[in-house]
Amino acid sequence: MIGFTANISGDKDLERRFSDAGSIVRTRVKELLTEAGQQIKADAQASVPQLTGKLRAKIKTSIKETDRYVSARVAPYRYYAAMVEGGVHAASVQVHGYVRQQQSRNVRALALTKSGRMSRKKVAAGVVFVKPYQRSFHIEAHPYMQPAFDKVKDRVVDEINGIVLMSVGGES
After folding, report:
1. What's the farthest any 2 CA atoms get from each other in the chain?
2. What is the DSSP letter of 11?
3. Kind of pairing between the strands at 59-65 and 70-76
4. Together in a domain, 45 and 77
5. CA angle, corner 146, sides to 142 and 151, nearest 5?
6. Residue 6 pLDDT > 50, yes or no?
7. Is 157 contained in some domain?
8. How far is CA 136 from CA 79, 90, 97, in A?
9. By C-alpha distance, which of 49, 28, 27, 41 is closest to 149?
10. What are phi and psi of 127, to 5 degrees?
11. Domain range spanning residue 145?
């Protein structure tokens, strides 16, 4: 780990400013990151494509604070979120045959007969064998998180720089 140590000596006012700066900066940066996280969440929710609304509802914000750092996380908590954001090009899904319980009656399917053979016929409720199949699909990209982040990124960096300067008595 790379680190540094600074010894401040001489001016008592300067020593006091640097010793107080840590808590001032931490408090203000935490407030700024909380506000920025909420802004990113709102912008992402406004621009996410909506089919069922589940992805929009699962965009969450959290603030983590340790003795070393303060961070904000804004993330969608759905397994397909990255596919919506970045798209999927020519993905292929292969489903192997499987057996499932048939609930409804009179559905045409491959069924296991009493002799153990498969037959395509109308079946009543019971065990049904589903044939293997393969499907290809393409999902267009609909970025919603990255544009929301880009919208506030420069402002947050500028405000953090200003907070640090102000906390040690510099000009913003």
Report:
1. 96
2. -
3. antiparallel
4. yes
5. 120
6. no
7. yes
8. 19, 6, 17
9. 41
10. -85, 135
11. 12-88+139-164
Strands of the sheet with 98-102, listed across from one edge:
98-102, 126-130, 107-112, 118-123
Is 170 inside any structural domain? no
Q: Is the dihedral of CA 35, 38, 43, 46 positive or negative?
A: negative
> In this structure, which long-range contacts are made by residues 75-79, counting pairs with CB atoms below 8 Å and at least 24 apart in sequence?
75/145, 76/44, 76/48, 76/145, 78/54
Give yes or no: residues 120 and 49 share one domain.
Answer: no
Give the total number of structural domains in the chain: 2
Q: What is the pLDDT of residues 17-34, one digit of tens each?
A: 666 667 778 888 899 999
Residue given tokens 């498969």 in the structure block:
118
Give me the residue label for tokens 């961070």.
71
Q: Pairing state of beta strands 126-130 and 70-76? A: unpaired
**How many residues in the chain?**
172
Residue 112 has pLDDT above 90, yes or no: no
- Is position 169 within any domain? no
pLDDT score, position 3: 42
Q: In the numeric block, which tokens belong to residue 1?
A: 């780990």
Give the whole-angstrom CA distance, residue 130 versus residue 82: 30
Quick check: is 171 in a domain? Answer: no
